[in-house]
């Protein structure tokens, strides 16, 4: 029953959008992974807010030691992560304005801080690598139904991995082209800016 309730809290996607508001809060860091002048993957770390962290611990930390280990990780992945695949892990990667497809997430690893904050670490690979030198690339991590609110406040919010120094930079901007919550909220996206 607890796992069912957890899924309902995490994905209340059948509700009327008019009554939507964030139920889950995520602070996110992103590592853009490059190989041979192409963007190949987006590694990310999600830090959940106090309420949802406590829910995850209550439901999946079976031995109550304040960590997820062994079968607990398997149960957590099955019960409160794998269902994100249906929503593309809330990743919105666009090339010249067109959304691109991503593969199933890999390297899922949950962790817990001494303050009982739950983190998810995982990587989403691109099905087709993106030539960033010839394209306008944006990366957004947000729930279009606004049941989950994603923010960027941690240190090293965005890391560019596998690039020559000073080859690319980025800006975090509001996505004016894809508002959510009945057009009232503009999600934050990462705009990649690279030298030709």
What would you call the quaternary organization? single chain
- Give a quick account of the main beta sheet: strands, pairing sense, barrel closure: 6 strands, mixed
The percentage helix is: 10-25%
Tally of contiguous helical segments: 3
Would you report the number of β strands?
11
Percent range for β-strand residues: 35-45%
Structural class: alpha+beta
**What is the molecular shape?**
globular
* Alpha-carbon distance between the two ends: 54 Å
Q: Which regions are unreliable across 5 or more consecutive residues at pLDDT < 50?
A: 11-18
CATH architecture verdict: Distorted Sandwich
- Following the backbone from N to C, one meets helices and strands in this order, namely HEEHHEEEEEEEEE
Give the overall pLDDT as a whole number.
90
* CATH top-level class: Mainly Beta
Describe this structure in words.
It is a single chain. With 196 residues, the chain is an alpha+beta fold. The protein is built from three helices and eleven strands; from the N terminus they run H-E-E-H-H-E-E-E-E-E-E-E-E-E. The strands form two sheets. Strands 1, 2, 5, 6, 8 and 9 form a six-stranded mixed sheet that branches. Strands 4-3-7-11-10 form a five-stranded antiparallel sheet, with no helix packed on it. A hairpin with a 2-residue loop joins strand 3 and strand 4. The N and C termini lie far apart (54 Å).
């Amino acid at each position: 029953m607890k796992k069912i309730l957890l899924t309902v809290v995490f994905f209340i996607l059948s509700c009327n959008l008019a009554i939507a508001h964030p139920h889950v809060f995520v602070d996110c860091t992103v590592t853009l992974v490059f190989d041979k002048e192409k963007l190949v993957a987006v590694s990310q770390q999600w830090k959940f807010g106090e309420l949802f962290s406590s829910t995850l611990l209550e439901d999946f930390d079976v031995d109550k030691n304040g960590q997820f280990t062994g079968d607990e990780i398997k149960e957590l992945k099955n019960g409160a992560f794998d269902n994100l695949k249906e929503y593309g892990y809330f990743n919105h990667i666009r090339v010249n304005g067109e959304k691109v497809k991503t593969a199933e997430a890999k390297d899922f690893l949950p962790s817990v801080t001494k303050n009982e904050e739950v983190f998810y670490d995982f990587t989403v690979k691109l099905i087709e690598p993106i030539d960033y030198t010839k394209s306008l690339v944006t990366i957004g991590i947000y729930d279009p139904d606004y049941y989950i609110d994603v923010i960027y406040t941690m240190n090293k919010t965005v890391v560019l991995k596998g690039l020559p120094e000073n080859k690319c930079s980025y800006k975090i901007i509001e996505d004016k082209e894809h508002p959510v919550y009945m057009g009232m909220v503009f999600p934050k996206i990462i705009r990649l800016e690279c030298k030709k």
